[in-house]
Write a sequence for this structure.
């Protein structure tokens, strides 16, 4: 009889200390001003490179510990290694000056589950298998209103500390729903405060709120989701960080060490299988168990294999029917050779991983290895069917592809400057693009979209235009990429019906997710108020300013609001955007003008 034993074994304290010391390379703690014992995962910029984690680098400026993050500057007030949190305050908020407000807009939607080193919440797990979500920080919202809201305790007036250039200025510390937003009010800024001292009294004064801004807000360096896709939480009894997936793992510094099987996936799939096997052992005779379990396993393997083969056949039939396309078909061995065994990894996302490679001709390429899922199979065919048939200076070129069973890859020309989001949303430092470069990039993207809509024998609708999908070459020439959501339709078709919204929330048109305002304040809510073709956008960008017609003001456009400058106390204005709660439509009709 075959007996499987799962060991619930956890590393001893000595083992944990040894692993932690190995990650920290025996570095002595650093200090800066009032912040002492700066140790793993944190490090100061002038510490040896072997110390700490580069993602948690801090700087010491004028004897003050500073965190540069998302183009913002934050003073570090405390680091609590006991609960894995760091407390920071916006550098523009000053004590004794209630007119000073945060310079940078920051909300929960700024945080990425997988890529961001910080989180505004923590998950704690207890022996009874329950999990508790602890919110370390919560948002408050600065608004301006043309008229004073009537009988609303949500709105706390900021006068006389902060005054709007027109109308009234308010701040909201409670949860804001779309129905709570008055028609005459505009959202200006969204920032975070600490949940531990957050004001619960709706009748609080703005002085109380400003004191909360001075206290700062907490961030946790324990990510709710690990970089391997695991679900991470803090043990309520031992205060140690564990991550659960197919395997139970313990987080030691920057390493994931497998400990034992556990977690949601085990409880749903492997857990059910284990209970079924246990029932078979109890009810069946040992002989039936010996022959029955292998048969069940074989049947499951055959079923999974048949499912994958069906998808492989669909992809192969598609490639055979489109064998006149320009891209070259490579074998998987060629892919391994050009990437030198997938040695140089450029990035990773939900679709899979991207590696740097070199063709025999010496040209550099980017190789996207797609994950083994049904959705990625459809994305693969979409990319080959769309980008494989076009060639334009502002559209990334698909050089080749690979399709061997579960191995699927797309080979693109290499873009040395990376994606646009890394230049306009840098996590450290200022935006590196000049106004001229930003304009040329905007014009190039518009030309690329115009070519997709009108320059091919079939109209190509991308459905996911965003900075992350705009790649830049060594001369900062923009190229549109990632056609996984693209659709083809005849040039003479003026409408396209979708069964669900496509794209990334925050970048799609309001008519797809009407209650989500989007990532741009200047968006026109009515399609009729926008240019009816991308060709007109190109002409607007290339033409003289005097000939551009002034569009109507959008539904939500930024109002001016005074902010005291950090250095010379001169007034400036700010505006920021806030995506509101969205609600998907079941069926959408997207109107496309043929001109």
């Amino acid at each position: 009889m075959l007996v499987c034993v799962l060991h619930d074994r956890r590393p001893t304290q000595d083992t944990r200390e040894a692993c932690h010391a190995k990650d920290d390379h025996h570095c002595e703690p650093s200090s800066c001003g009032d912040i002492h014992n700066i140790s793993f995962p944190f490090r100061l910029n002038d510490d040896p490179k072997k110390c700490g984690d580069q993602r948690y680098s801090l700087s010491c400026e004028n004897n003050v510990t500073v965190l540069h993050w998302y183009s913002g500057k934050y003073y570090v007030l405390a680091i609590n290694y006991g609960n894995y949190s760091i407390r920071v305050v916006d550098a523009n908020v000053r004590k004794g000056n209630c007119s000073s407000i945060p310079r940078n807009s920051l909300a929960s939607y700024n945080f990425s589950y997988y890529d961001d080193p910080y989180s505004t919440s923590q998950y704690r797990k207890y022996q009874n298998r329950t999990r508790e979500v602890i919110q370390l920080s919560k948002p408050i919202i600065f608004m301006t209103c043309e008229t004073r809201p009537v009988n609303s305790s949500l709105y706390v007036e900021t006068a006389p500390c902060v005054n709007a250039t027109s109308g009234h200025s308010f701040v909201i510390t409670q949860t804001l729903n779309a129905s709570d937003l008055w028609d005459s009010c505009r959202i200006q800024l969204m920032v975070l405060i600490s949940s531990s001292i957050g004001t619960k009294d709706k009748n609080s004064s703005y002085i109380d709120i400003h004191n909360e801004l001075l206290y700062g807000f907490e961030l946790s360096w324990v990510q709710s989701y690990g970089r391997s896709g695991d679900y991470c939480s803090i043990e309520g009894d031992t205060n140690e960080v564990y991550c659960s997936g197919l395997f139970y793992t313990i987080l030691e510094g920057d390493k994931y060490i497998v400990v034992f099987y556990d977690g949601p996936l085990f409880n749903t799939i492997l857990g059910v299988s284990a209970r079924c096997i246990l029932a078979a052992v109890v009810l069946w005779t040992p002989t039936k168990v010996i022959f029955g379990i292998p048969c069940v396993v074989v049947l499951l393997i055959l079923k999974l294999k048949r499912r994958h083969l069906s998808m492989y056949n669909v992809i192969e039939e598609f490639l055979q029917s489109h064998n006149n396309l320009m891209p070259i078909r490579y074998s998987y061995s060629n892919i391994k050779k050009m990437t030198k065994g997938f040695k140089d990894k450029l990035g990773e996302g939900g679709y899979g991983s991207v590696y740097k490679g070199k063709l025999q001709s010496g040209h550099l390429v980017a190789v996207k290895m797609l994950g083994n899922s049904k959705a990625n199979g459809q994305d693969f065919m979409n990319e080959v069917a769309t980008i494989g048939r076009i060639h334009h200076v502002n559209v990334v070129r698909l050089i080749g592809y690979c399709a061997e069973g579960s191995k699927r890859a797309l080979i693109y020309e290499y873009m040395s400057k990376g994606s646009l989001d890394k230049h306009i949303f840098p996590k450290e430092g200022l935006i590196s693009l000049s106004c001229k470069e930003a304009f040329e990039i905007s014009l190039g993207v518009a030309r690329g979209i115009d070519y997709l809509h009108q320059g091919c024998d079939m109209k190509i609708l991308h459905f996911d235009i965003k900075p992350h999908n705009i790649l830049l070459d060594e001369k900062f020439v923009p190229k549109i990429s990632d056609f996984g959501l693209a659709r083809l339709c005849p040039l003479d078709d003026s409408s396209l019906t979708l069964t669900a919204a496509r794209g990334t929330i925050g970048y799609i048109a309001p008519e797809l997710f009407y209650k989500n305002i989007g990532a741009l304040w200047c968006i026109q809510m009515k399609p009729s108020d926008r240019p009816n073709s991308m060709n007109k956008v190109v002409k607007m960008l290339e033409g003289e300013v005097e000939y551009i017609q002034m569009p109507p003001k959008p539904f939500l456009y930024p109002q001016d609001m005074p902010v005291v400058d950090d250095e010379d106390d001169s007034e400036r204005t700010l505006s920021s955007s806030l995506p509101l709660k969205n609600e998907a439509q079941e069926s959408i009709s997207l109107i496309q003008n043929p001109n």
Observations:
- The first helix runs from residue 13 to 24.
- DSSP finds nine helices and 32 strands in the chain.
- The chain has a mean pLDDT of 71.
- The CA atoms of residues 434 and 440 lie 10 Å apart.
